[in-house]
Amino acid sequence: MITTVSEAMVRCLEAEGVETIFGYPGATICPFYDALSRSNIRHVLVRTEQNAGHAANGYARMTGKPAVCVVTSGPGATNLITGISTAYMDSIPMVIITGQVVSSLLGSDVFQEVDITGSVEAFIKHSYLIKDPKDIGRIFKEAFYIAGTGRPGPVLIDIPMDVQKMEIDFTYPEKVSIRSYRPSFKGHIGQINKAAAAIAKAKRPLIVAGGGIFISKAEKTLRTFVEKTKIPVVTTLMGIGALQPDDPCALGMIGMHGIRPANYAVGQADVLILCGARVADRTIPNPEALARHKTIIHMDIDPAEIGKNIGVDIPVVGDIRMILSQLTEAACEDGLEIDGSGWDDWWEELHHQQKEYHPDHGDRKNYVNPKLFMHALYQKLPEDAIVVADVGQNQMWAANEFSVKKGRFLTSGGMGTMGYSLPCAIGAKAACPDRMTVSVCGDGSFQMCFMELATECQHHIPVKTVVFTNNRLGMVREHQRVAWDNNLTAVFLDGSPDFAKLAEAYGIPSARIHLNDQIELAIDSLIHSEGSFLLEVIVDPLESTL
Amino acid sequence: MKHTLSVLVENHAGVLSRVSGLFARRGFNIDSLAVGTTADPSVSCITIVVDDKENAIEQIEKQLNKLIDVIKVKDFTPTEIISRELMMIKVNATGQTRQEIKELADMYGAKIADITRNSMTIECCNTTERLENLLDIVRPYGLKQVIRTGSIALEKGSEQFSI
């Protein structure tokens, strides 16, 4: 079929089953936008390019498929960089299309030219600069394949404007074959058996479930494995909800801001089974000391993560869902019969820890207790709700109380990108219009992304927003208190607008509460109001994260 | 210990930048790096000599393998390979020293590539260690300029390293 490259780009997206894309146009990507206008693909116009990345991020996490964002050259592309690095750090599949200046002018610093493939090199799974229009089909096919397989990640396609306007004879390739890219899926059976043997011998085994569980859609497999083996499970920040929060084996989140029973379990375990978790510094702060007294089984699709941050005794490379089902089989085999017997003492100890742990849901006089608020919110949300936490204290309040049965908890884990919650929630809601989606942020992070309230309104993607207002960059404040002799500097958010009025300016209903007594009613109005809602929750500036 | 990594990559634009950038941002030190095409013109071989701990080398290898353009990586210790590096030394040389320098070069199997009234250019292809030796020996004459290609290496024996 003879067509323009820009039309072909749209055909490529259609062939990949893309229904929604997030973007922001500019001169160099106009040929594509022109072609897009004749397609059924829904385009969601964000209010700054970074948020096209975060929205695609949320969309990808909920669909499990590569999501697409499109921006123009130069500042459009550089604005998106934080969106790309955020996706890269959390292994989110994404295809990014950037317009580029005309190819004959490349390298001459013309208007809105930036070397975007070079700029993102350090935090992108792969990138292409298309110079030959005939490559269009192959490159799109490869990009989607690379983004969505193995350890997923963002892939960028940079297309000069003149190339977009060229005519080609186009067919979309059916198959993809990249000789240098063949991700492995199945775990090596010898390693699986070694892992099973180590677990059978363990006195105090523990599973650390990370974001990899969601990426490989291994939630059910994990549950089956745990049901059978009765191994306790802690999660990383990215792994929250990997095992349903009400599962008797779920102990909660570990790490710097994790809860005591979970961290206790990590400290005391003799066999640590890392499932799609990369042992980041905030999760396991002192890996070498920890590994010294334990058998470490590390299961991950990315061989480079194994042995990078923690010494490993039994590495297993592969897709975590495959590995877990292989391991479940191995656990049933004669002579092993891993069925939870023999771990009664271990469980007793852990139950004792759980009993001793009481999250502080106390009264706060003139403020709302955010931990109590999150607890109450989770009790009332529909059981499949999606909650997107931003970054900072709000994130940890939201993380540690998480108890939505079949819900999803999304946050920027690796990068800790402030301003992530609202655009990500928009993306998640666009992917799952029937699921209630709540963005939880602080007054700092909200002011990094509130322009996206307009996107919600324009495209009818209603998100419920909770803003914890303490007039501070709370987590930085806490850090300055502890590590910088309480020299509080540049953490005061004076000058912030009235968020309720701001919401009103967008036509979004809102409420503000400042007492624990108001929590129930406010949550009811948030949940039962039609469409978008903004709830501002006033918290004590001195409120601690844990 | 020094390791030599043979990295087979797709022969197209931007690949070298991806490979060298990876070393820079992950804090791996490159002793030398040489790149050229192979018998298959669509494939280039990058030979990288690194001096690091075993676990760092392992991590480098894994990170290289993650790059989509990298087809294959093989890690060699010095005893497993034949390695060669080309060096050219422009050294001060007068009528009195010219013969001496020529004799030294001969001992290393080096050639004299250029002569002027006050300089000579020695061309030597050998192992990195031998080149260092030669350099030390001619240093007292006064080095004007030294240039080296970085090592390339092949595995000893009849084994074939290809895609």
Strand content of chain A: 15-25%
Number of helices of chain A: 23
- Give the averaged pLDDT of chain B, no decimals: 94
Number of helices of chain B: 4
Distance between the termini of chain A: 61 Å
- CATH homologous superfamily annotation of the largest domain in chain B: ACT domain
Give the strand content of chain B: 35-45%
Task: Output the helix-strand order of chain B.
Answer: EHEEHEEHEEHEE
Q: What is the number of strand segments of chain A?
A: 20
Helix content of chain A: 25-40%
Task: Describe it.
The complex is a heterodimer of chains A (546) and B (163). With 546 residues, chain A is of the alpha/beta class. Chain A folds into three domains: 2-169, Rossmann fold; 189-356, 3-Layer(aba) Sandwich (Rossmann fold), CATH 3.40.50; 370-538, Thiamin diphosphate (ThDP)-binding fold, Pyr/PP domains (Rossmann fold), CATH 3.40.50.970. Chain A has 23 helices and 20 strands. A six-stranded parallel sheet of chain A has the order 3-2-4-5-7-6, sandwiched between helices. Chain A has a six-stranded parallel sheet with strand order 11-10-9-12-13-14, with helices on both faces. Chain A has a six-stranded parallel sheet with strand order 16-15-17-18-20-19, sandwiched between helices. In chain A, helix 1 (5-15) crosses helix 2, helix 3 crosses helix 18 (421-431) and helix 12 packs antiparallel against helix 15 (344-356). Chain B is of the alpha+beta class. Chain B folds into two domains: 2-76, 2-Layer Sandwich (Alpha-Beta Plaits), CATH 3.30.70; 83-152, Alpha-Beta Plaits, CATH 3.30.70.1150. Chain B has four helices and nine strands; from the N terminus they run E-H-E-E-H-E-E-H-E-E-H-E-E. In chain B, strands 5, 6, 7, 8 and 9 form a five-stranded antiparallel sheet that branches. In chain B, strand 2 (30-37) and strand 3 (43-51) form a beta hairpin. Classes of the chains: A alpha/beta (546), B alpha+beta (163). The A-B interface holds A 117-118, 121-122, 125-126, 129, 146, 178-181, 302-304, 307-308 and B 9-10, 13-14, 17-18, 21, 25, 55, 58-59, 62-63, 65-66, 68-72, 163.
